[in-house]
């Protein structure tokens, strides 16, 4: 008997009709003799509606009450899916995160999953039921409801799959797989049959908003095979799993575009040890996620320029902090540029194939696209370009690396 | 330091504006140095909307999933009220039934409250917070969510007040107290300053839909004083408490009208021992609540007619069951009349004042209102009359017993 974990996102359970369709698919999988656990998100815009209500009361909600409020969204969709399954004579039960044994850190709004006590889930599976678990939530040591932050339901699904040692974690979504790049930008974009955790991680981090990096990370740690697939079309999607050497024929597997970035520059910082540390400590204290960092030393050798990127939403706060640090360190000043985009190529094959970076820069230059910043990892190269040039950059890179074939 | 329990119904928390108003009132009571626990219902029509969604999926929901679904309504309003209190700098925390320690029987949709573990509520009160508890729900021994049936939030409030040994349980609602009869029927209807548990119990059972009988019963058992009052007007309402002999000057305290009844008759039942028992056992097995029962023996002595009343919603099922029993017992048949109403007078003073029934019948007869059935208890007399005559009956009785003075 095979244990399968399904995850359905908010769009997939966005209406009563859609919930009934999901029930049919789930019941069919159970009818084949599988044990099935389904993780659901809140219906469509439920979470946004709850947050709207909340914002009419307060702009700065206490995170505990925020969790208490928004966690109801998943509880509603879980109960409705359970009822829809029962209606077509498929035994089912819905469980809140707490009832399902999902234990998190004592941190509201972004507690990480610490442990999953499987007793209840296993008991219900043993009784032949489909077990539906509310995604995105668990409980802490006090029994308080904790939501687990962005990408929560994907992470819930993978964590439960890991705890159950499930054979596969099917993540149903509104796209039908992982593509070499965004098919809306490049029509030749090709769906990948498989992709390694590492590659998916880089793509997910880079704005290919298909699957949250936390979920991929969790799957990688526990070796859970993810099948990312369409909730409406009954076709194979993309398997995310352990990298397979045989398949790494191409150095580059995908191209990603991220428009949600801003560039902050700090100019002519006296080049003393610890000056960068002070800046990035201050940003970290303000919970601002910094992505790319570049430092260039002036020819004189005593002053450096630094630049880094953050999400657009953090740009103003990051600039403020950077200005204060600049003043304290007697730098010339700080500037912010939100008119930038980041284009990246990803592939585990890069490690063994030299010249990939050169090929990328060449391709961009052939289209007169100026590179403002570069950062590289073992399996990724990212370039910051001027806003509006990202699409063109993606297209030329997709062609250059033969991804459409 | 005084401990006060407030309960706000669905209408009172029906919008963001109303929730903000409730927060102001609650904060003011806390500011006077009181410990405050607030029990809330779901916002306005939330529960109905959830049930609507559910009915698009199934007409016969599994009660466990029903509870899982509808309990989210109270969780939303509790979290929003907590946020509204925090927004005006009043420390607050919302708790689900389970978090608040409300333990119920293992019966979905109508579990009674078995026990309240006060640890969490007391700890939060100690820290100076207003504690908001979701009404209408608790958890069973498995940790499943249990809703506690009709009148649930009132009962939650009284039970928590009892456990806390609270000084008073303020039930805020959309009427401003208990009246001698429905003011929409009789304009002279007078608000009562106090009423005994027993009287309130009879009035509540009789269709004066102000406060659920379960809540009154619970208050009576634990001696909790209830203050039933308006959520919009800042005036005294009606205190429901231990009967006070000094105040029982009038035999009759209130007149109630219940239109939600149907009369079932079973004709010429051979008068054997156990024939009534069989009928009412069958009705009980079908979970049909029977109210008044009358049996009249025919002059011959070997056959009896029986009649009883049920809620209109149960009429068809009750008639079916009665017909089957009639057939098995060789009775002549069974009939149903839904064109009836029940008018009742209530008052603890009746016990010591003879002639109250006669006075009632006389008043009805003076208006040519025919009485179809009569039932009496120590503090109540009910008469079934033809549909459409109830209002006239209430008016004449209200006048006859001087209730407007």
- How many individual helices of chain A? 11
Tell me the count of domains of chain A. 2
CATH-derived architecture of the largest domain in chain A? 3-Layer(aba) Sandwich
Task: Provide the succession of SSEs of chain A.
Answer: EHEHHEEEHEEEHEEHHEEEHEEHEHEEH
How much strand content do the residues of chain A show?
A: 25-35%
CATH H-level homologous superfamily name of the largest domain in chain A: Acetylglutamate kinase-like
Question: What is the name of the CATH class of the largest domain in chain A?
Answer: Alpha Beta
Index terms:
VC0802-like; alpha/beta; homodimer; Carbamate kinase; 6-stranded antiparallel beta sheet; globular; 405 residues; 8-stranded mixed beta sheet
How would you portray this structure in words?
The structure is a homodimer of 405-residue chains. Chain A is α/β, with parallel strands linked by helices and 405 residues long. Chain A folds into two domains: 3-174, Carbamate kinase (3-Layer(aba) Sandwich), CATH 3.40.1160.10; 255-400, VC0802-like. Helix content of chain A is 34%, strand content 27%. The first copy, chain A, has helices spanning 16-31, 46-55, 63-87, 119-126, 152-163, 197-205, 213-222, 275-285, 315-328, 356-366, 390-400, and strands at residues 3-8, 35-40, 92-95, 102-104, 113-116, 130-134, 137-139, 145-147, 168-173, 194-196, 226-230, 238-241, 254-270, 290-297, 303-310, 333-346, 373-377, 380-386. In chain A, α2 (46-55) packs antiparallel against α3, α5 packs parallel to α7 (213-222) and α8 runs antiparallel to α9. The radius of gyration of chain A is 23 Å and the shape is globular. The model of chain A has no long low-confidence stretch (mean pLDDT 90). The A-B interface holds A 16, 19-20, 50, 53-54, 56-58, 61-62, 64-66, 68-69, 71-72, 75-76, 78-80, 82-84, 86-87, 93-94, 96, 98-99, 120, 143-145 and B 16, 19-20, 50, 53-54, 56-58, 61-62, 64-66, 68-69, 71-72, 75-76, 78-80, 82-84, 86-87, 93-94, 96, 98-99, 120, 142-145.
């Amino acid at each position: 008997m095979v244990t399968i974990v399904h995850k359905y996102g908010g769009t997939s359970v966005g209406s009563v009709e859609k919930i009934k369709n999901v029930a049919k698919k789930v019941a069919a999988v159970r009818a084949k003799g599988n044990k099935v656990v389904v993780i659901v998100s809140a219906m469509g815009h439920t979470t946004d509606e709850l947050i709207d209500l909340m914002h009419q009361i307060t702009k700065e909600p206490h995170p505990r009450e925020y969790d208490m409020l928004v966690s109801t969204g998943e509880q509603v969709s879980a109960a409705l899916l359970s009822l829809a399954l029962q209606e077509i004579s498929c035994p089912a039960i819905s469980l809140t995160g707490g009832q399902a044994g999902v234990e998190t850190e004592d941190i509201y709004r972004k507690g990480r999953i610490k442990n999953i006590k499987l007793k209840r889930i296993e008991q219900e599976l043993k009784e032949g039921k489909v077990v539906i678990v509310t995604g995105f939530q668990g409980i802490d040591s006090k029994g308080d409801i904790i939501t687990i932050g962005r990408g929560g339901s994907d992470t819930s699904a993978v964590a439960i799959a890991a705890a159950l040692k499930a054979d596969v974690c099917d993540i149903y979504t509104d796209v039908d797989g992982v593509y070499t790049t965004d098919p809306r930008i490049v029509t030749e974009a090709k769906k990948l049959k498989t992709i390694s955790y590492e590659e998916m991680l880089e793509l997910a981090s880079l704005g290919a908003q298909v699957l949250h990096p936390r979920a991929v990370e969790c799957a990688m740690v526990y070796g859970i095979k993810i099948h990312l697939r369409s909730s409406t079309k009954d076709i194979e999607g993309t398997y995310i799993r352990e990298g397979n050497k045989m398949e790494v024929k191409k150095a580059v597997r995908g191209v990603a575009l991220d428009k949600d970035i801003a560039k902050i520059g700090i100019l002519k910082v006296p080049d003393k040890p610890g000056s960068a540390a002070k800046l990035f400590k201050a940003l970290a204290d303000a919970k601002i996620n910094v992505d790319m960092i570049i430092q260039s030393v002036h020819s004189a050798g005593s002053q450096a320029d630094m630049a880094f990127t953050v999400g657009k939403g953090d740009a103003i706060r990051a600039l403020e902090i950077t200005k204060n640090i600049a003043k304290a360190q007697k730098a010339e000043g700080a500037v912010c540029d939100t008119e930038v985009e980041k284009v990246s190529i990803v592939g585990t094959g890069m490690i063994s194939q030299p010249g990939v970076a050169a090929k990328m820069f060449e391709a961009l230059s052939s289209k007169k696209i100026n590179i403002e910043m570069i950062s590289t990892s073992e399996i990724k190269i990212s370039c910051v370009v001027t806003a509006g040039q990202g699409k063109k950059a993606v297209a030329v890179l997709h062609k250059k690396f033969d991804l459409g074939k």
